[in-house]
Amino acid sequence: MFTDSHCHLDFQCFKPDLSTLLNDCHKVGVDSFLVPSTTQASWANVIELSNRYPQIRIALGLHPYFLKDGLGEYRDELELALAHPAVVAVGEIGLDKWQGMPDYGLQQRIYYEQLCLAKGLGLPIILHARKSEDDLLKVIRQLNFQHGGIVHAFNGSLQQAKQFIDLGFVLGIGGTVTYPRAQKAQRVLAALSDADFVLETDSPDMPLYGYQGQRNTPEKVLLVAESVAKIRGQSLTQLAQNTRANLQRVLPNWHEV
Ligand SMILES: [Zn+2]
């Protein structure tokens, strides 16, 4: 059985058919899901999803992509919401250096505050990194943050991968490795040990190779697994066991479904 360790099932595009989708996932062996939140307004929806579907675990936090100037006080509300039993991490949080992203100073402030909160509560984090791996690592070290978590959709160098792993993180491996041109990502994946990664889709975004332009869904984590198995010369069974064990190790609040 596989877990999709990163899927935004609270997004509007899943509303009409989520129950059917989760049933279809179960039929193909994808039996659990980690849904990270994005905005303050999304926390209630994500919690609601976990109440309705016991196979859904959640992370609560503010995603850098969706930050707005004038963000008010959020910490008390976040801290309160993080006490929900389905919560396994603070997330998704991080830094995004892509063009057109919210002000980087604002991103850094909110990332720092949320990392402090996670540290205070003893919770792991779900990290969003885009061209920002070194900045993220710096703050983790500066705060001596020791609860680890998942670097979602990791796309950095092997050297950066090793630094995150040494700090107690695993890397989220998704659709990127299915693209023939993604040789750097495939080389990094091939060099990792079995304990270093988990699988994800980032649904509805990051379509797999051959599915560009379509809504991505958690069922596709199986196709990610097939690519990973091929690149690493492993069986799907081994991969399912290792990635499940890794998820439970880095997210201690993750209980079996
Ligand atoms: Zn995400």
From TrEMBL:
GO terms for molecular function: hydrolase activity. SUPFAM superfamilies: Metallo-dependent hydrolases (SSF51556). InterPro entries: Metal_Hydrolase (IPR032466), TatD-like (IPR001130). It comes from the Bacteria. Keywords: Hydrolase. The keyword Hydrolase applies. This is TatD family hydrolase.
